[in-house]
Design brief:
This protein has 190 residues and is mainly beta. It is built from no helices and 16 strands. Strands 4-12-11-7-8 form a five-stranded mixed sheet, with no helix packed on it. The protein has a three-stranded antiparallel sheet with strand order 5-10-9, with no helix packed on it. It is flat. Pfam families: I-set.
């Protein structure tokens, strides 16, 4: 096929490669440069979020995406405690940390450590728990005669530190109240 495969690359493999194809009608050349990339982990371009919010009883994924070559090994800590995979905590291969069934005890400073053969780095963020949003009054089924008006209610409880937005949809499509103002009307009760 004219393929060149290289394994276990080193810096000595870097350079300009040339493929030459030849037959009785002539010869043709193609060039390509191979760069070998190696760098210690750095969070300069993609630091961890400084503040991470998670709903009580829910699940959160905290991303850890440093630039590094080769791919680093990851570890996590909460405060001074080193974290290991368990029933509620999982460290993914890509470095992300997943926590399920969030409780108040999960709040705190989380640090991701990344290390490869070129060096190491870390980045820290603070996890805060919020009260889960819940629908306290769901819309009810309504039978209406053609031409009449219908009103549907939806009431929800939420963490007071966060804003709440209601989105209505019809058969899976979000209703655009600006475009359909002649047919739909949104009443927000405080």
């Amino acid at each position: 096929k004219g393929e060149l495969r290289m394994q276990s690359l080193t810096f000595d493999d870097a350079g300009m490669y040339q493929c030459i194809a030849e037959n009785t009608h002539g010869i043709i050349y193609a060039n390509a440069e191979l760069k070998i990339v190696a760098s210690p982990p750095t969070f300069e371009l993609n630091p961890m979020k400084k503040k991470i919010l998670a709903a009580k009883g829910g699940r959160v994924i905290i991303e850890c995406k440093p630039k590094a070559a080769p791919k680093p090994k990851f570890s996590w800590s909460k405060g001074t405690e080193l974290l290991v995979n368990g029933s509620r905590i999982h460290i993914w291969d890509d470095g992300s940390l997943e926590i399920i069934n969030i409780t108040k005890l999960d709040e705190g400073r989380y640090t991701c450590f990344a290390e490869n053969n070129r060096g190491k780095a870390n980045s820290t963020g603070v996890l805060e728990m919020t009260e889960a949003t819940r629908i306290t009054l769901a819309p009810l089924n309504v039978d209406v005669t053609v031409g009449e008006n219908a009103t549907m209610q939806c009431i929800a409880s939420h963490d007071p530190t966060l804003d709440l937005t209601f989105i209505w949809s019809l058969n899976g499509f979000v209703i655009d109240f600006e475009k359909e103002h002649e047919h739909y009307e949104r009443n927000v009760m405080v």
